[in-house]
Design goal:
The structure is a single chain. By secondary structure, the protein is mainly alpha-helical. It is built from eight helices and no strands. Helix 2 runs antiparallel to helix 3 and helix 7 runs antiparallel to helix 8. The longest helix has 22 residues.
Length: 148
């Protein structure tokens, strides 16, 4: 009698690598194709770890920014921020490097500025500073300080 095969269980890191590879391949046909891949992935995989979903929303923000969909970028930023604690929990020691690799907050500042939401853009600068994402965020914040 044959032994039942156990299902393959991927680590969060493996799933994250799969997401990046799939997006890179799809996005080689442009940001609309990359966005289509990401949205299908987010909608079709209910078991996708929340930490991976956060990174997916970072990629969604980049693709939507490339397409000039500023409201879509803002929504992606909101989704990313809601999943940030789950991303930290899921990635553990790799969280900091993964967070530094994201561009979602930069895209969010750009989107909110394009939409005329300067206080919202300033809020994202404050979040980035609180997350210690780099000294350049102080400069961005200073350039938007008039919005207070």
């Amino acid at each position: 009698m044959s032994k039942r095969q156990e299902p393959v269980r991927k680590t969060t890191r493996d799933i994250l690598d799969d997401l990046h590879n799939g997006h890179r391949e799809a996005a080689s046909n442009g940001p609309a194709a990359g966005l289509k891949y990401l949205m299908r992935t987010l909608e079709g995989q209910q078991s996708l770890p929340n930490g991976v979903k956060a990174v997916a929303w970072d990629l969604v923000a980049a693709d939507r920014a490339a397409l000039g969909d500023w409201a879509g970028v803002d929504q992606a930023v909101r989704s990313f921020l809601s999943l940030l604690p789950a991303m930290e929990e899921a990635l553990g020691h790799g969280f900091r490097a993964a967070l530094l690799a994201t561009t979602v907050l930069e895209r969010g500042v750009q989107a909110r500025s394009e939409l005329g939401d300067f206080p919202g853009a300033l809020d994202l600068c404050d979040r980035a500073i609180a997350l210690d994402l780099g000294a350049h965020w102080e400069s961005k914040r200073e350039s938007l300080d008039w919005a207070r």
